[in-house]
Amino acid sequence: MKQALATIVKPLPDHLFRVHGVNAEMRWEAMSGQGYHTPNDRFFVRNHTSTPLIDATTWRLRLHGAGIRRPREFSYDELRAMPSRTFDVAIECAGNGRRFYGTQQRDPVPGTQWGLGAIGVARWRGVPLRYLLRQVDVRPTAVDVLPSGLDAPFEGYGHVRRPLPIDKAMDDVLVAYEMNGEPLPPDHGFPVRLVVPGWVGIASIKWLGDIEVSTTELFTPWNTVFYPDITTQSVKSAFELAWNARLPVGRFHILHGRSWSGRGRIVRVEVSFDGGVSWREAEHHGQHLVSAWLPWHVGWAPRRTGAHVLMARATDETGARQPLTTPRHPYGYLFDAVVRHPIDVVNG
Ligand SMILES: Nc1nc2c(c(=O)[nH]1)N[C@H]1C(S)=C(S)[C@@H](COP(=O)(O)O)O[C@H]1N2
Ligand SMILES: [Mo]
C-alpha cells in the first residue's frame, strides 16, 4: 500500500486526514474554527487511480460530438479570458458515510469505508459549461454531455467519465479553474474540472480533457456499473468534533456542526444528547447557500462523566428529514441516517 499513498500529491497529515488506500478523508475536527469554506489543504481527495501532473501550457479542452455544430479546442488561457462565474458549492462522494451501514446498522457494505469526511465546500471559479456549449453551437437535438478525465485509465474501464443530461449541463454546471481563490490544486483537478452542484461527486470530473456532446443517450461504466441511477445527494449532518472527542464535565460547551442536502437548503437542525429521546433545535448562523451547507451550533453543559452519544438531524426544504436508520443500499451510497457520534465527558 506504500505506492498507493504516493498517488495524492498534497501532504496528508494525520490530524487533518484519514487515508483510505488511494483516497483521503477529511477529519471533521479539521473544520472546527474554519469559515464557510473547506481550505484546500484539508479538502478530501477521491482518486480512482492517481493525481496526474498536467502542463497547462500544452493542455487543451476538446469539445466534439454529433450534438454540436462547431467542434473546437480551448486553451487554459482562452478559458481564463472568458466571462467567469463564482459559486460556493459542495462536492461530496456518493459513498460518504458508507462506514455507518456497517457500524450503526450492522449491515456492512464493501467499498471505501468513509465516515462523514468525504465532503467539502469550496468557492469555485470558472466558465459556466453552457457558455462553452453555446460557443460550439450546441444543437437542439443534444441529449448527453460526456466529460472525460486525463488521469490514468481505471482498471479495464478506460478514463473516468460519466454522462450528464443536457438540461443539467446547460443549467448550473461550472468548468472550474479556481478553488478558494487559487488555481485548482493538482489533486482537485488542475488545470480544469467540472463542478456539478447538488449531484454526487463522481459527476464533477477532474482533470478534464474532452467533452463529447451526443444526440443519443450515452453509457459508460460510471453510469452503469459503478454509480447507476444516482444524481442528487442525500441529507446529512456532522459535528466539527473528533470521533471520541474528550469534553470536560460541568462546563458550558458550544458545539458546532454543519448540515447539507443535494436537493435544497436545510431549514431545520435538531440535536439530541440522550440517544434520540429528546431533540433541541440548533441555532443557525452564517450563510446558507443552496448547493453548499448550513453551519449551526448548540450549547451543552454535560453533567456526568463517561461515554455519551451526540446526534444531529437535519430537514431540507423539500421536507426530507434524516431518519434514524436508512434502507440498505447495494453500493453503500447516499447514507442519510442520523450518525451517532461518540464522545467522552471527562473530569477537568
Ligand atoms: N477524472 C476523475 N474525476 C473524478 C474522479 C476521478 O477519480 N477521476 N473521482 C470522482 C469522485 S468519485 C469524487 S467523489 C470527486 C472527488 O473530488 P475531490 O477529489 O476534488 O474531492 O471527484 C470525481 N471526479
Ligand atoms: Mo465519489
From TrEMBL:
InterPro entries: Ig_E-set, MoCF_OxRdtse_dimer, Mopterin_OxRdtase_euk, OxRdtase_Mopterin-bd_dom, OxRdtase_Mopterin-bd_sf. Its cofactor is Mo-molybdopterin. Pfam families: Mo-co_dimer, Oxidored_molyb. Keywords: Metal-binding, Molybdenum, Oxidoreductase. Residues 255-325 form the Moybdenum cofactor oxidoreductase dimerisation domain. Residues 48-220 form the Oxidoreductase molybdopterin-binding domain. CDD domains: SO_family_Moco_dimer. PANTHER family: SULFITE OXIDASE, MITOCHONDRIAL, SULFITE REDUCTASE. This is Sulfite oxidase.
